[in-house]
């Protein structure tokens, strides 16, 4: 039997040769149903594309990198998935590089990495993206980069970015708790080196202020973006003589720790304690009760950052189509679920013995 | 003021020049405390390594790839972290490539990717790693690869692998439930294309058989490794006239769905229903009650796979030290937590009206 050709595939799938070629070369412009039909035809005929006939990409690798330092696996996987989706649209590949944001050698480390792996550009995740001296040092060495940062406004500092207005979203969460009647609202910080955490704190502080609620410093606990810090922080707050009736954990990992701490002391959430997180992670949907949170759209944010980077890289390649390069802002949206409820009055705190 | 030199750093940190050089070049042989001292000295002196003095790696990038198709983010991030840790030890970098395991063009896609990005080798995660025709096709094109596979024994088929004995671990979980008095134990499958899921099913089946419990086909539900399939499958089992008193979800995502389903119908876990998962994911520790599961050590498994791959790559480089290349097996360990408890007798099922 003769070997099947691309023509046989096109006939069987009832599409043009060009369409088969697009599917073989993984071009994004083919509709899902058409792509499936072509793939079925390829499988049925056992057709194998001839490498010399394939539209082989240039010998130069088009690879971008993502550098991150974050203890939250869902955040990282969402960033990766967003960047990968922009890579697939454009034929780029992705290297990942977790690093220590506090290392004084970080500039050298990142430049060495980019040079030895011939990376075309870099998506910088927080907190590195928020350290201006690092960004300046990389830019001065000619590194093309796009930052994902926490900021209420476009910084317009000449370094492309995608900015996420955590402050407004944190204001909304706090407002939601206040409107449920809560006056004593605990706040658990994420890592101080993440600007997102101070932005969220500022949103919390502003909402309390606007509603005339005095901020009680005992209700604010430092920590990192982790379950364990959420658990420890909540245990500390719940042991106060006058504990909070609601706790706002500055991400969902922290809020998960608060939920476990509340359950470990026999509290019924949300009736004995309201809990809110931030991120809209899978955990926030899967826990019981599911968590009130702010939907952060991390994947979309990262996809936009990668598109911005790739558009910038193509501006340098005169043969490629020129795309406009714009910074872009996102505002996470309040998502109300079962972990927050109207405040129930509590007995007054016990008097000193 | 003169620019600080590597000698100044060594003096200040009270270490040898060689040690400073090791830290600058990110070599793994420096103790944590020493490394910290050197980094402090570098930061205090504002020392910047001279690129020409740095032990710059060869112009060839040493990059390996991980290809995966898995809906479970924690599994993927653990695989990445394990591979990255082996990369850091050896100076390799990592590209990641999610793909569609069912695509008939997968061999071409992976070969194109490896060629254009000049990858030295590949870690194949399940289910691709378990499709022998894919493995053979890649090997015949000269691709160096190591597979992570579900298998009770070393397949010794000439293709290096790390094998994970899911069957024994699933046997142990089922045995644990039987020993708690459960006779009606539901089983929720993961994706049928994952050998891990059939291995786990076989362990479940064998344990029931060994304990003289007849397998009731109504208690076995197909699905994928997802929360939603766990939720749906559990709702179906709990709606049976004679529902199970325990459910074994074949990974923790599924078990999380079972937990939510049980809570959604007002059941008290573990008293009304025992639930076990598989993986020891963060969710299994963070949920309430925390989940009985099998600790899979995915990160360690992936680290071993990457070490095996890198050792293999170095065998091809005569100047590098030759390491022995051995396949390696892992057995996940039973972890008993709060989601499983002794069976409580139930009223007999209602008679037909």
A few lines on this structure:
With 353 residues, chain A is of the alpha/beta class. Chain A folds into 3 domains: 44 residues, 434 Repressor (Amino-terminal Domain), CATH 1.10.260.40; 143 residues, Response regulator (Rossmann fold, 3-Layer(aba) Sandwich), CATH 3.40.50; 131 residues, Rossmann fold (3-Layer(aba) Sandwich), CATH 3.40.50.
What CATH architecture of the largest domain in chain A would you give?
A: 3-Layer(aba) Sandwich
CATH level 1 class label of the largest domain in chain A: Alpha Beta
The tally of structural domains of chain A comes to 3
Our measurement of the CA-to-CA distance between the termini of chain A, rounded to an integer number of angstroms, reads 96 Å
How are helices and strands ordered from N to C of chain A? HHHEHEHEHEEHEHEHEHEHEHEE
> Structural class given helices, strands, pairing of chain A?
alpha/beta
CATH homologous superfamily title of the largest domain in chain A: Response regulator
What features would you describe in this structure?
The structure is a homodimer of 353-residue chains. The first copy, chain A, has 353 residues and is α/β, with parallel strands linked by helices. The first copy, chain A, folds into three domains: 6-49, lambda repressor-like DNA-binding domains (434 Repressor (Amino-terminal Domain)); 59-165 and 297-332, Rossmann fold, CATH 3.40.50; 166-296, Response regulator (Rossmann fold). In chain A, 41% of the residues lie in helices and 14% in strands. Chain A has twelve helices and twelve strands. Chain A has helices at residues 6-13, 17-24, 32-45, 73-90, 106-116, 132-140, 166-179, 195-210, 227-238, 252-264, 282-286, 298-315; strands at residues 63-68, 93-98, 121-124, 145-150, 161-164, 185-188, 220-221, 246-249, 274-276, 293-295, 328-330, 333-335. The first copy, chain A, has a six-stranded parallel beta sheet with strand order 2-1-3-4-5-11, with helices on both faces. Chain A has a four-stranded parallel beta sheet with strand order 7-6-8-9, with helices on both faces. In chain A, strand 6, helix 8 and strand 7 form a beta-alpha-beta unit. In chain A, helix 1 (6-13) packs across helix 2 (17-24), helix 1 (6-13) packs across helix 3 (32-45) and helix 4 (73-90) runs parallel beside helix 12 (298-315). Chain A is globular. Chains A and B meet through helix 3, helix 4, strand 2, helix 5 and helix 10 of A and helix 3, helix 4, strand 2, helix 5 and helix 10 of B. Chains A, B: This is LacI family DNA-binding transcriptional regulator. Chains A, B: GO terms for molecular function: DNA binding. Chains A, B: Keywords: DNA-binding, Transcription, Transcription regulation. Chains A, B: It holds the Pfam family Peripla_BP_3. Chains A, B: Residues 4-58 form the HTH lacI-type domain.
């Amino acid at each position: 039997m003769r070997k099947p050709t691309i023509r046989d595939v096109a006939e069987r799938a009832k599409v043009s040769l060009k369409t088969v070629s697009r599917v073989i070369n993984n071009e994004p412009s083919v509709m899902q149903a058409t792509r499936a039909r072509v793939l079925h035809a390829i499988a049925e005929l056992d057709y194998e594309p001839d490498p010399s006939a394939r539209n082989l990409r240039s010998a130069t690798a088009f690879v971008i990198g993502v550098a991150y330092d974050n203890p939250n696996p869902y955040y990282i996987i969402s960033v990766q998935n967003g960047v990968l989706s922009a890579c697939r649209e454009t034929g780029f590949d992705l290297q990942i590089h977790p690093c220590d944001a506090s290392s004084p050698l970080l500039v050298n480390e990142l430049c060495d990495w980019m040079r030895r792996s011939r990376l075309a550009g870099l998506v910088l995740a927080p907190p590195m993206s928020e350290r201006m001296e690092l960004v300046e040092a990389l830019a001065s060495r000619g590194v093309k980069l796009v930052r994902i940062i926490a900021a209420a406004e476009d910084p317009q500092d000449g370094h492309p970015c995608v900015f996420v207005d955590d402050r407004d979203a944190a204001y909304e969460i706090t407002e939601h708790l206040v409107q449920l009647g809560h006056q004593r609202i605990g706040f658990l910080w994420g890592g101080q080196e993440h600007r997102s955490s101070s932005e969220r704190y500022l949103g919390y502080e502003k909402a309390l202020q606007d509603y005339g609620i005095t901020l009680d410093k005992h209700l604010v606990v430092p920590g990192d973006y982790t379950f364990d810090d959420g658990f420890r922080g909540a245990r500390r707050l719940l042991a106060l003589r006058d504990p909070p009736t609601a706790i706002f954990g500055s991400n969902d990992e922290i809020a998960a720790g608060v939920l476990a701490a509340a359950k470990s002391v026999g509290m019924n959430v949300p009736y004995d304690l309201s809990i809110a997180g931030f991120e809209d992670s899978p955990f926030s949907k899967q826990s019981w009760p599911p968590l009130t949170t702010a939907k952060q759209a991390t994947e979309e944010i990262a996809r936009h950052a990668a598109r911005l980077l790739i558009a910038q890289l193509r501006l340098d390649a005169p043969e490629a189509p020129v795309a406009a390069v714009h910074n872009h802002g996102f505002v996470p949206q309040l998502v109300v679920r079962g972990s927050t409820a109207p405040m129930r009055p509590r007995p007054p705190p016990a008097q000193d013995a």
